[in-house]
Amino acid sequence: MEFSVHIPFVELLGFELQKFEGGEAEIAFAPRPEHENSFNVVHGGASMTLLDVVMAHAARSVEPAMGCVTIEMKTSFMRAAKGALLAKGKLLHRTATMAFTEGSIFDAEGKLCAHATGTFKFVPRLPVGKSTNALNTLKTD
C-alpha cells in the first residue's frame, strides 16, 4: 500500500503503510542500525515519528482528501523497541476541524513498546511538487 502524500522523512525511515481505512492505520517499520540510540535499540525520536505518522494516518483515513497537522502528542515508552515493529493508530473522536487519536508500537512478539495520544488539525491538502514553491505554504490560522 502506498502513502498518498510524499513525506521525505517517512521515506528515509522506510515506513510501510499496511492499513488505512475506517479510522485505523497500521505501519510496519524495520529499523536499521542508523535508527538506533547508544543502547542499540530504536531511538525514541524514530518511535515518536512512527507514532505521529500512524496517528495522523488514522485521522486522515476517514477523510483522505484532507491533510492534517500535529497539534500535540504525548508518548509513553514501556520497553525498548527492537527488531521489526508494527504501529497501530486509531481515531478516537473527531470534530469538523480536529482529530483525537491514539497509537501503539508493538515488537515482533506482540509486546507493547510505546503508546501515544495525539491531537491533529484537519487542513486542506495543497498541490506540492518535489521543489519548494508558493503552493507549499500551509496556513495554520
Unreliably modeled segments? 130-135
Strand order of the largest sheet: 1-2-4-5-6-3
Strand content: 35-45%
The termini sit apart by 32 Å
Total count of strands: 6
Taking the sheet with the most strands, its summary is: 6 strands, antiparallel
The total count of helices amounts to 2
Taken in chain order, the helices and strands follow as HEEHEEEE
For this structure, the quaternary state is: single chain
Q: Estimate the mean pLDDT confidence.
A: 91
Compute the CA-based radius of gyration. 15 Å
What is the 3D form?
A: globular
Tell me roughly what share of residues is in helical segments: 10-25%
Characterization of this structure:
The structure is a single chain. With 141 residues, this protein is of the alpha+beta class. Helices cover 16% and strands 40% of the residues. The chain has two helices and six strands; from the N terminus they run H-E-E-H-E-E-E-E. The protein has a six-stranded antiparallel β-sheet, with helices on one face. A hairpin with a 2-residue loop joins strand 1 and strand 2 (24-29). The longest helix is centred in the middle third of the chain and has 17 residues, at 44-60. 29% of the residues are buried. The model is unreliable at 130-135 (pLDDT under 50).
